[in-house]
Amino acid sequence: SKVNEFSEKYGFSEDMTNDLLDIVKTENKDLKEKLNRFERQQQEVFQQQQYEKDFEQNVLPTLRKKYPELSNEQLATAKSKLKEYKFSPELAKVPLSYIASHHEDELENIFSTPKKKKTAEKSRPGQSKKEIVDYDSVTADDIAKMSDEEFDKYSEAMAKKQSDLKIIKH
């Protein structure tokens, strides 16, 4: 066997050669796992960069033309929503511009959301119960089931988070 030949050629015992092979196999397995993890991360980064480029080149000009009053918050919300669709298994291979046009009604709702007005109405005692929602764990299905009011709250939270991230980066 090759183990015997190697052991004789270099003066190692068969046990020592087998132990050395086990170490090499373990290290090789760990290295392969690290390389696979790195490749997955690189693929995710590449996909994100492609999405950003596709959005900037093929969707944003159309949105800016159709909705000249578009706020950064509305844009961030629309971009996030389209990203959810684009990265879903069903739509991964569909061009982003097609996804945007296919979900035009949904985008229209985002862009036509009126600014909320503050009211002078006083809240009644015991009526100020606030529900805390973890928007980071919201799925596309959750969003689809949201009322307009819930979606507005979600959009505002995501836009605020996005702007907070920009502040941290600079």
Structure, explained:
With 170 residues, the protein is mostly helical. Helix content is 71%, strand content 0%. The chain contains seven helices and no strands. The chain has helices at residues 2-10, 14-66, 72-86, 96-102, 104-111, 140-145, 148-169. Helix 1 (2-10) packs across helix 2 and helix 3 packs across helix 7 (148-169). The chain starts with a helix and ends with a helix.
Secondary-structure map with pairings?
Elements: H1 2-10, H2 14-66, H3 72-86, H4 96-102, H5 104-111, H6 140-145, H7 148-169
Ends apart, CA distance between termini: 62 Å
Note the beta-strand portion. Answer: under 5%
Major sheet description: none
Task: Give the mean pLDDT.
Answer: 80
Question: Which regions have little confidence, pLDDT < 50, spanning 5+ residues?
Answer: 115-130
The number of E-state strands comes to: 0
Question: Helical element count?
Answer: 7
Structural class designation: mainly alpha
Sum up the overall morphology in one term: elongated
Helix and strand run = HHHHHHH
Radius of gyration: 27 Å
Percent of residues in helical segments?
Answer: over 70%
